[in-house]
Structures are given as structure tokens and as C-alpha cells.
Amino acid sequence: MPATPQPPDTPAFASADDVVRRFAAHGYIADQRLATTVFLLTRLDKPVLLEGPAGVGKTELAKTLAAVTGRRLLRLQCYEGQDESRALYEWDYGKQLLYTQMLRDKIGHLTADAPDLAAAVQRIEEQDSVFFSDRFLAPRPLLDAVRGDQPAVLLIDEVDRADEALEAVLLECLAEYQVSVPEIGTYTAKTAPYVVLTSNNTRDLSAALKRRCLHLFLDYPDAERELEIVRSKDTGLPEATARHLVQVVRGLRELKLRKSPSISETVDWARTLAVLGVDELDPAVLADTANVVLKYERDLHRALDVLPRLIDPNRVLPEPGHRHDGDDHHHGHHHHGPGHGEPDEVDGRAVRAAMDRQGRHDEAYYGAPGAGPTHRPAAGGGQGARAFAAVARRRAD
């Protein structure tokens, strides 16, 4: 049930504890530090910059804030190469042209008695304000948040993916809650929007941008709070099993993965296991469903090697090189994945950061002109091999 919009002069929250309570009613479990930051955001009329890994609830916080306060949510999704027109405003050139055609007779009448071309152009120029007015202005999220009649929550999502030039455009809006349109003038917000910026830390943001914001680093929650989040989503998984699953996920995050499981993926895994009717975790069922939280093949192979130990810390694992004996009978070779002495062992987070850096598309990529890829997967290393490996693991377990 959506919240009732409050009058502009009514405080959104009475205290940080009020934030915790009302966010929890909407399914968002906030700790005291996060609740205090949200409370200050609404009282100080300052933007908040949320930094941290993907999937820890930064975007969801803005959505919940809009739902709790009854404000409309405006979202600016940032991306590389984004220009200011996509963030601020654009002129509706199609509408301007349509009006020009409709008013052709009026324009002819206006210039009919002009003594020469220069005079006719002068008369038309004097009417520029007709075609560069609010009627033909197409607001984008920043301008819409400032000049809109209804109070808003402005979400500037993944600002670290935008070019630095867009940061400069944001400064005026974030400092004064105003947007300047040269052809018209300056719009200033009647009611300051609640502004939430998120960053996944793929690059450093400017000091000028950070200076204008409250700052909070959101990391993965502790075990109890993550369990509380899973519990609040009504996944259907038994309490003891959900607690065990949270511990497994936290163990996976300790690995050098290219993408660690997010909180929302923990919830998805819990729902998956509940649908399958799982009451107790075992390596086989987790191996069959690990793709819910692990989205890269290398991460999946690394996790399969340690899942039995994550489920039972006292479990003795087979020696490396003897884990996939069943694979030898079917394929004649071992799959030496991560954890088996790979020569290219690297930190997955560093790999991901390198892929997110600006200008990465200027380098060689699959399908680009040239000699083509230098490495192709070995035969038998695909889905069939994994299926045989799963059968072998179940027999071994």
C-alpha cells in the first residue's frame, strides 16, 4: 500500500528509529548507521552518496525512501558517454517543427510587409521566445526533480559509470537544487528533492561532488542482519536452513570471485531451495543451484571445490587432482579449475574493476577486426562435463 504524500513542510521522519521502523514495514532492514544517514538526508536537505559493492541495497534504499515518504521516484541511470541533455533537458525539436508548419501562414503574415530579407529575419528572431519556452522543453530527471510540482526522490544510479563531465553538470543541481536553461532562465526547486547517488567504486569521484554530499559506505551486512533480511522476504525456507545458507554465502564472499553474491541473490537462492523443498543443505543440492548466485563459470568451479567445507567445516576434502575421478572415465582429463594451481591466478575483483574501467571498449574484443580470439575453450569443458562432474561428486559424497 503506497504511503500518503506528506505536506512539504512536514518532517519525513521523527528520528532515526522511526526510519528503521518504517523501512522495515516496507521490507528494507536498515541498521542504525544507515537510518541515521537517511534521517539527516531528510532534515539537512543534503544529497547522500552511497558507495560500496553491487548488490548491497543502495538502489533499493532510494526506492524504499520514495515508497515510505510518498514521493515520486525519478531515476537517472548513468552510463559511459552520457551527455548532459540526457540528464537535464532536451528541446522537443519535432514539436517545434510541427508548430512551425502549423503557423506557417502566421509567419508569412508577420513578414509580409518586411522591406528586405534582413528585416524579415529580424522579425522572426524577435519571436524566438515562442519556440524556446516551457511548452517545447522536454525535462529529464534532474530538471524534472527541480521544477516538478510534486516532491521527488531523485536517484542518480551508478554515478561512477558516467564521465567526469557529467559530474560538473551535477554540481549546480546538488548544491543549490537548481537548473539553468540559457534560453529561459534558472529553475529553483520549491521543495528540495531527496537525492540519493550510488557508486560501485569503479572509479574515484571528484572531491567537489563528494563535498556536496553526505557519505556512507554500504558493505555486506553481518550474518544476523542478512538472516533478518532473508526472513523478511518470506522465502519459505526453514529458519535453521536459512541461517545455514547465510553462512555458506558469507563463505563464498571470502573467495576471490569475479562477482560476489549480493544480498538479493542470497534471497533468490533461499527461494530456490524452498521451491525445491530443501530442508537441509548438502553439497549436491547447492552444486545444482549455485548458478543462482554465481554468474561466472570460473566463480562456479571455484565454489564447487569448497562447498562441502562451507557446509561442514570439519569435512575432509579429497586431495587436489583426485576430486573428479569420474570425469577421467568420460573425458580422459581433469578440469583444473581455480584452486588447482592455475597459472593465471588473479584476484577476481581486480579483473572486474579492469573490465569496468573507462575506454575498455577501445581495446581488442571478441568480434573485433583482426586475428580473432587467441584462446578457445577445450572440448569437453562445457555443460556435458559439468553434468558428469556433478554425478561424480554425488557418488563421492
List the keywords.
46% helix, 5-stranded parallel beta sheet, 9 strands, alpha/beta, 397 residues, 18 helices, two-stranded antiparallel sheet, single chain
Describe the structure.
- By secondary structure, this protein is an alpha/beta fold.
- The chain contains 18 helices and 9 strands.
- The protein has helices spanning 16-25, 32-44, 58-69, 93-102, 104-111, 117-125, 128-131, 141-147, 164-176, 207-211, 223-232, 239-253, 263-275, 283-289, 297-311, 325-331, 348-356, 383-396, and strands at 48-51, 72-77, 89-91, 137-139, 152-157, 178-181, 185-188, 194-199, 214-217.
- The chain has a 5-stranded parallel beta sheet, with helices on both faces.
- Helix 1 (16-25) crosses helix 2, helix 11 packs across helix 12 (239-253) and helix 12 crosses helix 15.
- The radius of gyration is 28 Å and the shape is elongated.
- The model is unreliable at 316-346 and 359-392 (pLDDT under 50).
Helix/strand layout:
Blueprint: H1 16-25, H2 32-44, E1 48-51, H3 58-69, E2 72-77, E3 89-91, H4 93-102, H5 104-111, H6 117-125, H7 128-131, E4 137-139, H8 141-147, E5 152-157, H9 164-176, E6 178-181, E7 185-188, E8 194-199, H10 207-211, E9 214-217, H11 223-232, H12 239-253, H13 263-275, H14 283-289, H15 297-311, H16 325-331, H17 348-356, H18 383-396
Parallel strand pairs: 1-8, 1-9, 2-5, 5-8
Antiparallel strand pairs: 3-4, 6-7
Helix pairs in contact: 1-2, 11-12, 12-15, 16-18
